Amino acid sequence: SETVERHEFGAEVGRLLDLVVHALYSDREIFLRELVANAADAVDRRRFEALTGAIPAVPEGGAVRVVPDKEARTLTIADPGIGMTKAELATNLGTIARSGTRAFTQSLAEAPAGDRPSLIGQFGVGFYSAFMVADRVEVTSRKAGAEEAWSWASEGRGDFTLSAATREEPGTSIVLHLKEDAADYLEPFRLKSIIRKWADHITIPITVARDGTDEPANEGTALWRKPKSDITPESYTEFYRHLGHVFDEPWATLHWTAEGAIDFTALLFIPGMKPFEAVEGERESRVRLHVRRMFITDEAGLLPNWLRFVHGVVDTEDLPLNVSREMLQATPVLARIRRAVTNRVISELKTRAKEAEDYAKFWENFGTVLKEGLFDSPEHSKDIAQLLRFRSSAVEGWTSLADYVSRMKEGQEAIYVLAGDAPEALAKSPQLEGFRARGVEVLLLSDQIDAFWPERLDRFEEKPIRSVTQGNVDLSKVAAPEGALEEAADVSRLLPLLKDALKDQVSEVRATDRLVGSPVVLAAAEGGPDLQMQRLLARAGR
Ligand code: ADP
Ligand code: MG
Questions:
Q1: Nearest atom of ligand 1 to the alpha carbon of 174
Q2: Residues annotated as region A (predicted)?
Q3: How far apart are CA 361 and CA 132, in angstroms?
Q4: Whose CA is nearest to atom 8 of ligand 1?
Q5: By CB count within 10 A, which of 59, 100, 176, 503 is most buried?
Q6: Which residues pair with 252 in a beta bridge?
Q7: Does 253 contact ligand 1 (Cβ within 6 A)?
């Protein structure tokens, strides 16, 4: 039928388009990077879905084709990928699904106008960057496995249209009607140089049409397969940005080949910034699994969840190319790779932890995530304990458990911690008085997760870890400096009176050597949850 449906863009898309079209100029060639990356992703996804046989395979030699047409002033990017249904066209290209893009729009709107072009250059804005160079964009797509095709079209203002279309093969074609001042994107030479600059590491063939022939434009050598000495820091960074949809410099780059019991090459990155998609969002590791360079899936769980901030690629010879999801779950090969890769990341962190200032950058971004490992991977909790950093009642900055232990007082039997919501409030807590008076250091824990792990970890270098709010803390063996403590008054007659007055609200009232200036303090029952845990449980309604 000839019906054309008209749809409004989501409000955020409208704002983004406005910024994209009006704010930039200098870096607009990145539209090609964005569209080619989407096309390559779509081919990867189709290849993997086809393994289970449900959809037709990617045709032999299937490439992403970039086709300039000088007469029509159009640039077409076509891929034999997974394609989109009508509904997917409307959602993927009509709303902003990615929280990262949303956060980016925010920072773009807040940036001074002069800074915007470089911001866009750094970040990329996905599909919508097409409107930097085109005043009309048509996307025709046929989902692999479906019979019908649909066309999405827009001039990048308030709305887009959807209409029925025809397409012989599954995949997607994007036709850009180039703006008058964007004619240089019709030059094959220019297109090729952009692709080489931004997309050389994409392993799907990319071609640029010239005089009726498709000429290869990318080298397509998987970066991780090149010898380290042939890789510049810039190409590592570019690859990292492409993988993670991020635009900072990596804090760590790990590139190695394991040979022997199991053969694989890994190229992993630890981000230098906390990603927009806050670590709380995605809970699973997205390290990509390749088999002999071919992308298989980013859902193989190659790293435990508590290392999910690591991006990268693992490429192995030890799995068949047509490995299916089911097989991935069952194969011991993956478990072995996982162990090796996890150990390598831990050892890298241990090495970098020796440089306190440098390590603090990592810790402030991802420390809370790392702590989850204390529950999730008890087999690694000794390693993780060495990587933990804390605020402390005794020293500025971050301190480790090992440093704490080296400062323990004579007669001090445990590592003391106080968990709560804010470090500033913790530092002022009356719970610390007796510890301060005796010069006993207390670690101040203010992450949500801090209420939970000390009990799990239980000990570090044989020293028990105790919450200062627990009733059974015994400081009597630690000598206080002369004059730091007053002679304790005899309160033995007061205690039963208090217990009587508070009735069931407390289980016990007792004298303590933990206080100096304050008359009373709440303590948690021996063996029970500490106070912060009780607060969290109460908040959760339990
Ligand atoms: P991102 O790629 O980061 O998700 P984009 O704005 O670049 O964001 O693309 C939005 C979505 O549109 C993609 O996630 C994908 O689902 C879909 N999409 C874009 N281009 C294609 C394509 N060539 N083939 C299939 N799906 C695509
Ligand atoms: Mg994209």
A1: 23
A2: 1-325
A3: 35
A4: 126
A5: 176
A6: 270
A7: no
